[in-house]
Amino acid sequence: MNRLSEYMLPPAKSVTAETTDALFTFINNTSLILLAGITVAIIYFSWKYRRRSDDDVTPVISHNNKLEITWSVIPLILVLIVFSWGFSGYMDLRTAPDDAYEVKVIAKSWLWEFHYENGYVSVNELHVPAERPVKLVMRSDDVLHSFYVPDYRVKMDVLPNRYTSLWFQTNEPGESIIHCTEYCGRNHSNMNATVFAHSQEDFETWLETAASADDDMDPVERGEMLITRNACDTCHSADGTRLVGPTFEGLWMSEREMEDGEIVTADENYIRESILDPNARITAGYDPVMPSYQGSLSDSQIDAIIEYLKTLQ
Ligand SMILES: [Cu+2]
Fold first, then answer.
1. 219-310, superfamily in CATH?
2. What's the pTM?
3. Distance from Cα 157 to the centre of ligand 1, integer Å
4. How far is the centre of ligand 1, averaged over its atoms, from the C-alpha of 113 (Å)?
5. How far is the CA of 278 from the centre of ligand 1 (A)?
6. For residues 152 and 298, which has the higher predicted lDDT (pLDDT)?
7. How far is the CA of 311 from the centre of ligand 1 (A)?
8. What is the fold, at CATH topology level, of the domain defined by 3-49+63-94?
9. Which of 193, 195, 214, 248 is the least buried, fewest Cβ under 10 Å from its Cβ?
10. CATH classification code of 101-212
11. How many A from CA of 112 to the centre of ligand 1?
């Protein structure tokens, strides 16, 4: 790779990234060469054919076969090169290898959920094995989102009511950033996550321990950890600050006013309902934008969150 594209692009960390970058560099360099050539020609010709005297007569040129063929054939060849190069790269990116490790991805405004084969769900953290192809099967719970890992040079739209997929393989254990690249509402710019690529062995250990890791934690600590791990804290503060959603401070057992004027006490059932079916009742003064955690938080995890909320008086 040349200096210029190294300067312009993030490090290439997937097995397909080099091919994508090579095409990018080719298109970029060809465009720069053409830009320079055309600019020089314009300046040179406007000087060479400038009007010299009052009786300068512009000659009538009807056509020039040689020139016309040249300026049609050269761009045609360039376009064909770019097309076939791009098409083969596209096919490679679209067809996941058969032995790919599969992770289900659910996009919600404004977080990413990752569901693993053993039922474990992580939020805003994607854990994958390195040196093995990984296939993501994705859908959205609400609006259009788009899954993008710049280091891997992979990007795919995530739609409601339809599955889309994407695959990548990274050979270096490490971290890379995930961005949502489809404008999806107020907190779109915070809809980021991280991919953690582990060696095969570390990945298996992670998967085994992750699911049971928090079972024997102290409920309050576990609740606090779950609030962070499930990205509740991107919309709810614990210190009275108003974010997208109401603060958790002082919530427990307080009287909440709903959009329709109903007054509800924030007890276990209200909190549980708020988490599993957030649109059942909307707190007055807020937009109905909270995603449902149905299917991703277990009963005992909800219990732990309630225990933690009780401490925020
Ligand atoms: Cu999004």
1. Cytochrome c-like domain (1.10.760.10)
2. 0.74
3. 10
4. 12
5. 19
6. 152
7. 32
8. Helix Hairpins (1.10.287)
9. 214
10. 2.60.40.420
11. 9
